[in-house]
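Batch 3, record 17
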Amino acid sequence: MQEKYTKAYAEKLDAADALRTFRNEFYLKNECVYMDGNSLGLMSKRAEQSVYDVMASWKEHAIDGWTGGEIPWYYLSELLGDNMAGLVGAKKEEVIVTGSTTVNMHQLVSTFYQPEGKRTKILADALNFPSDIYALKAQLALQGYDDAHLIQVPSEDGHTLDEEAIINAMTEEVALIVLPSVLYRSGQVLDMEMLTKAAHERGIKIGFDLCHSIGAIPHELHDWNVDFAFWCTYKHLNAGPGSVAALFVNENHFGISPGLAGWFSSDKEKQFDMEHTLTPAADAGAFQIGTPHVLSAAPLIGALELFQEAGIGKIRRKSLQLTAYMMDVIEYELGEFDFIICNPINEKQRGGHIYLEHPEAARICKALKWKNVIPDFRKPSGIRLAPVALYNSFEDVYHCVQTLKNIMEEKAYEQFSNEREVVS
Ligand SMILES: *Cc1c(COP(=O)(O)O)cnc(C)c1O
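Prediction for the assembled complex:
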């Protein structure tokens, strides 16, 4: 066997890993290899502690916790926006932590979709996450347009999108473009800078869903001149199930009225004047709606510290190394078992996870779980494996592929049905 495919080699890569100590910050279950951090990131000790801290401030301060205590809740959304700005390449005032991915998308589309003359359509893609598409159709319906007003750029191969095809679809009928930064299945990274430039040259506003890139790859939203973006915090950012999401609005648009207004859209000094005329915050804070979900934002306080300490550049570098290594071992070990690697191979387009297709995918995933390796299944035949830079090791990757090989050799998947679970 070549040295490169031994466990000793994986251990050598781990020993040389600059981020290896971050693994100790997380709760990893013994004997379990977690490869699903792009669906729900693991709990860190810091995130846990920050939840306890916010609980303690509620216990101690009651109503005065809004403006007192160590981290006053009234300014928490802004504080966390500041702490997250570096991850998206934004100015502090351009990011606010609020709502959920889907709610923020409704907020931003209702703000930036302003059909006028023959520019009435929204441009999206055929591979995006369903929630985004439902929201776009609902926003069109609110303006009196049917689904034919949503243009979805098709995929040639069913896995990836061609940026040229997207640009060709940027016609004079398009009022707004919403695309993912990284596709949730194949993990393809779209060239956000190029797409933004092309959209603006054609007089179209453009926004991105960063759910699968936030915390995994660096962004330069401000410099790329992106109009708006939104993302969740429970995948690569590890802030827990249903943790509060975030959004970006380019400072060029400060002053535009929020489509969905509420009293937390207010300038913070004026909010408690209780006037019936809204004075919106001068920055991205204007896109908040109601009282922040303080307990669901709390884990982000601790979770983000780890990103500030590790640095997104180093995280991306290790992530690329992990996925390259994983593809390498998959090709070496699984060559005879009909797996197809469907994520982009090149570094520029490769996101934070590996995407395999196999006709028996649903039950192979069940067999992996039974063997304590946690993948995620995407209907009809996809297996996503996400080796996460902050807590997965090269040995995890080695173990994952060896387990997959054993399952295939022993046909261990045959004892399970090839159907998806309720949550997969
Ligand atoms: C995870 C994800 C969502 C989830 O939206 P929620 O409102 O947080 O449930 C939406 N869009 C994409 C692309 C996602 O990856």
